[in-house]
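Hi everyone,

Forwarding the result from last night's run.
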Amino acid sequence: MPYIDGFVIAVPTANRDAFIGHARAIDPVFLDAGATRVIEAWGNDVPEGRLTDFRRAVQATPDETVVFAWVEWPDRATRDAGNRKVMEDPRMSGDASSMPFDGRRMIFGGFETVLELHR
């Protein structure tokens, strides 16, 4: 079953087009490193929770939108090798200040698939 890297990011809403451009430039690096799919999803129904929620998780301000993204890999071994390739890829050598969001507030992690259903 696939291995998933998941990400939640707060992006200034005014930077939507810049974020999409950034993703179009960076996401192919993951595909070239062995990922099978990359999804970037712009939040448009991200409610406030009573105790916690996506917005609080990334300290999103009122002028920011939450982005939920993931990278699918065939398996953990491909992901581990792929992430090493991604970090060595010259396309990833840009200055962090050029990102259209504050990467320090991004949350991320790797997830083992335990159930997968298809129609």
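Residues 44 and 65 are 8 Å apart (CA to CA).

Cheers,
N.
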